Amino acid sequence: MPDNRPLPPPTVQPSSPPHREALALVFHHLDDSQREGSVQAILELANTGQANFEGLLLAQRDRANVGAVWANQMGGAVAAVWPPNLVDEEPEETADALLASLHEHLRETPLVMAQAILESDTDLIADRLRRNGYEHAALLYYLVCPVQVSPGSGVFFGENTSRSKPGSPKKTPDPFSPKCPVTFEPFSEEHESRMLEIVDATYQNTLDCPRLNGLLEPNDVLESYRSTGVYRPELWSFVIDKSSQRDVGCLLLNDHPDHEQLELVYMGIVPSARGGGFGRHVTQFALTTAQKLGRHRVVLAVDALNRPALDAYSTAGFSVSDQRHVFIRVFSGSR
Predict the structure, then answer these.
(1) 259-286 tens-digit pLDDT
(2) How far apart are CA 145 and CA 303, in angstroms?
(3) Burial 217-234 (b: 16+ CB within 10 A, else e)
(4) Nearest-angstrom CA–CA distance, 49 and 152
(5) Which domains are seen in the chain, by residue range?
């Protein structure tokens, strides 16, 4: 006769080193090779200080691991959450218990927001997040633009455009030309307050993930931008209008040398300067910077509803490579 008695509740506790088994549960939904690759990549990030396991929690019943969840606290009062995964036939209450314990842990930190990136907004994982206080904040398109050098013909970017012959790349104007309406001044740490001011100004009436506006202090925003890839201050720039000699925007690039790519972490133009074509020159500057560094591509993420930005990036040679859904949970009592 089958035993229909309810299972005892699991015990949720922090994972103990070496963490491999807990991480394998976090990535339980992947096939064996993908799971092993993900676990190894995370362990390598931990060795370089880019990942920590204070928010890696295990659910156990009768000393058996039945589920896990992980929050990696990034810079800027944001935690990246890998949602709970469970072993087969484990009740959904275990996922709720894992998230409840995780949120209790995160409330003890100087945290403002937890963020999860999902492939779908309608599957079981998304349901687990929604019933535990997460909301859908945006659909992100991930864009990529290949960079190559054509000897004697300048730098070429991207694939085809409406103004190109089929099969021919697009040649872009030189952002260092005297005809370019903007100049680019490298950022340095002593100009932190100036960068904070211009980033904050570019957020006004933005179409890029507007739900996130106002959730973080400007210094937290900058810290979160520093936390992706390899931060090099000389790759961050102020965008200056030549005619008025005032800051009209910013360009923040982070390096990914292991993947031979440059990431456009953030590009913003102040409202009064929008519509003047400055964004096109800023994008070209990013592509030229990638070429000078010997990177093979530039990557970025943009809100799927930000049609002006998508049109501008498409014109510059970017194409959509993937898409993901952003879920957030705001910890209003954290500050």
Answers:
(1) 999 999 999 999 999 888 888 999 999 9
(2) 17
(3) ebbbbbbbbbbbbebeee
(4) 42
(5) 11-111 (3.40.630.30), 141-322 (3.40.630.30)
